Amino acid sequence: MSFLKHKWLIAAFAAVFLIAVAAGITLRFAVQGENREQEISAPPQTSAEELPEGAPANTVAVSTAPTETAPPPETTAPVETEPEVTTPAETEPAPEPEESGTVRICIGGDTSIDGEFADFAAQKGVDYPWEEISGVMGEADIAIVNLETCVSDGGVSEKREGYGFRTPPEMLEGFVNAGIDAVNLANNHTRDFGYDALLDTFENLAGSGIEYFGAGNDLDEAQGLLVIEKNGVKIGFTGANRVYLANDCAAREDHAGVNQIGGADSASTLAYIEKLREYDSMCDVLIVFLHAGEEEVFEVSDYQKKVSRSFIDAGADIVVGGHSHTLQPIEFYNGKPIFYSIGNLIFWHIDDDIDGLTAIFDITVDKGGFVSLKLHPLFIKNYKVYYLKEGEGKFGSRYPQIIELLNSLCNPYGLAFDGEGNMTEYVAPPEGPEAAE
Questions:
Q1: Residue 93: is it exposed, middle or buried by C-beta count within 10 angstroms (0-12/13-18/19+)?
Q2: Would you say residue 16 lies in a domain?
Q3: Total domain count for the chain?
Q4: Domain hosting residue 221, numbered range
Q5: In a domain, 76, yes or no
Q6: Closest by alpha carbon to 285, among 226, 184, 366?
């Protein structure tokens, strides 16, 4: 009985142990399944910085701090790197080609707002002498006039009575308003009121923003080159005076004055011609002003022809003449124009049919030089200059008179002007039997 009893206890104990083990295994698998279910169904965790405003309080915030990783094992093998690639955005843009076009230069003749001209301008306003041509001058790329006067309030005239010209400095406002960019001072009136008035002229022009050439504080400046660049084209201006002046009026190395030259073969003229050879390489288009010839005539002197042509031979692309106060012929020499005289602009005159007839010379150039010419006929009256239109206005009949005058002067040189003032080639009318047909 005792053995059977112990055998039953042993069996009962073994059964309890097996049940306990089985229960434990079941519990373990149940917990793992619950955890696995939680991993699948849990929403993605969001960092505190990414939580939208008003998020539930039980949203879990996870730190975004970077986790530390073990450093890579050290090696002595060379590290291959990709070559640096420069993107188009990082490269320097290629320089754009320099733009080059045409330049329109309007040139007016002798200008001196003094005496009665200055009196009228003082009464009616500084724009009065210019009011009919300011549109043409202002629209040009460059506007130039021959300033045949000093600009000063001081000095005493060095000329005989009535022949000394002095423009009040306040009149320069009218020049500026009319669009004048620069003036030629190489003439026989820049020094009319003495040395100090000449220096005043330089200062007053500079103070008004108007460039000048043909005179200066010394010989280098008087002979110098003024370069104005427009539309990618460099235009050079320089000027010389041949009309008689006292020795004290000429510029020297240590003396202000006008760029004075002598005879066609004189040392001063030849030295200036050498300057022109230098200037030819310093600009695309070289324009030289020459003040020479006889007054109140339409004919060209031998001196004007010889020196103007020598300027072209030295590199000038255009020669512009003055001093006669009249219009004179235009000649093309070696394919380049010489305007022997462009007459007056705003200047006293003695005869309506001689020096009262004039024009603005509207010249177009490019890097190759002269391109075209258009005339704007003008008539001087009432201490101002009138812009003419054929058949219109008080002086409309003067328009064809000026065109006919220029044609009579230029036809022998192979040039002509149409009814609109455009320069063309002159074709001589047929002669003999063909003319009758």
A1: exposed
A2: no
A3: 1
A4: 103-425
A5: no
A6: 366
What kind and span of H or E run contains 74? none
Kindly report the number of other CB atoms within 10 A of residue 117's CB atom: 23
Q: How far is CA 41 from the centre of its chain?
A: 76
Distances in Å between the Cα of 371 and the Cα atoms of 103, 193, 230, 262 are 9, 40, 15, 32
Q: Count CA within 13 A, CB hemisphere, residue 95.
A: 3
Shortest CA distance to 136 belongs to which of 109, 174, 108, 171? 108
For residue range 282-321, list pLDDT tens digits in order. 999 999 999 999 999 999 999 999 999 999 999 999 999 9
Three-class secondary structure of residue 2 per DSSP: helix
Q: Which two tokens stand for residue 406?
A: 């220029």
Phi, psi of 217 (to 5 degrees): -75, -15
Structure-block tokens of residue 270: 């030849």
- Cα first-last separation, the chain: 171
CATH number at residue 305: 3.60.21.10
338 inside domain? yes
| Residue whose token pair is 């460039």 | 211
Distance of alpha carbon 58 from alpha carbon 53, whole angstroms: 14
DSSP 248: G
Rounded to an integer, what distance in angstroms lies between the CA atom of residue 28 and that of residue 184? 111
- 99 confidence band (pLDDT: 50, 70, 90): low
Identify any residues that bridge with 62 across adjacent strands, giving them in sequence order: none
In this prediction, residue 35 carries a pLDDT of 40
Instruction: Quote the CA–CA distance of 426 and 220 in Å, as a whole number.
Output: 41
Per-residue pLDDT of 408-436, as tens digits, reads 999 999 999 999 999 999 998 888 766 65
Question: Tokens 């009318």 sit at which residue?
Answer: 429
Element (H, E) at 372: strand 369-381
Cα torsion through 145, 149, 238, 341, rounded to 10: 60
Q: Which residues of 308-333 are buried (b: 16+ CB within 10 A; e: fewer)?
A: bbbbbebbbbbbbbbbbbbbbbbbeb
Q: What one-letter code names the amino acid at 74? A: E
Instruction: Kindly report the pTM of this predicted structure.
Output: 0.78
The structure tokens listed for 417 are: 């002007």
Kindly state the helix (H) or strand (E) to which residue 321 belongs, with its residue range: strand 318-322
Confidence of residue 38 (pLDDT cuts 50, 70, 90): very low
DSSP 8-state secondary structure symbol assigned to residue 185: -
Mean of the per-residue pLDDT values of the chain: 84
Contact status, residue 299 vs residue 341, Cβ threshold 8 Å = no
Note whether residue 173 is domain-resident: yes
